Amino acid sequence: MGRLQKCCCCASTKTGTLITAVLGIILSIITIVLVWVVNRHEISFRTFIFAEEFDKKLAALDIPRIILTINLCFTILICFLLIVAVHKRRSWLMLPWVVLGIVLAIGLLISVLHTAITYYLDDQDHVILATAILVGGLLYLCLYLYLWAVVFSHYLDVRDEEERGRYTKAPYKR
């Protein structure tokens, strides 16, 4: 994979990485607030693993909301770790975010496809909604993958710098 030299054609990958980490923190906090503020009947949490009755019992106990909140708290922690890694120039501190980022991208793709297909196959006429979810979700996935590539490029730069040493100038020969 080729490395990106700039983020959005004007900022360094370091700046892009910091912006990505801050965006991750902000979006996670907003999501946590929305998950707990919005009425239960307006958001549907389903596991698709258990029977529908058991899913309803879990939702009544707020188990899916609690699990989502814990996951988002870990995302905030990993984003803070990414900020520290950028300032200290430590590639191994960036690695959790890089791994989490690609796993989340795969999960986002599966979620967008599943939701859109479910609405397309629904008995009611949700074609416009399904198309909006599909197009919007895939555009969001592209943006997310671009930001992941920015962070990954910065990770590779920092890792290479650690391997060869901070200074590339040869010492004076006497």
From TrEMBL:
<dbReference type="InterPro" id="IPR053077">
    <property type="entry name" value="MARVEL_domain_protein_3"/>
</dbReference>
<feature type="transmembrane region" description="Helical">
    <location>
        <begin position="127"/>
        <end position="156"/>
    </location>
</feature>
<keyword id="KW-0812">Transmembrane</keyword>
<feature type="transmembrane region" description="Helical">
    <location>
        <begin position="98"/>
        <end position="121"/>
    </location>
</feature>
<feature type="transmembrane region" description="Helical">
    <location>
        <begin position="66"/>
        <end position="86"/>
    </location>
</feature>
<dbReference type="Pfam" id="PF15860">
    <property type="entry name" value="DUF4728"/>
</dbReference>
<dbReference type="InterPro" id="IPR031720">
    <property type="entry name" value="DUF4728"/>
</dbReference>
<keyword id="KW-1133">Transmembrane helix</keyword>
<protein>
    <recommendedName>
        <fullName>Lysosomal-associated transmembrane protein 4B</fullName>
    </recommendedName>
</protein>
<keyword id="KW-0472">Membrane</keyword>
<feature type="transmembrane region" description="Helical">
    <location>
        <begin position="16"/>
        <end position="38"/>
    </location>
</feature>
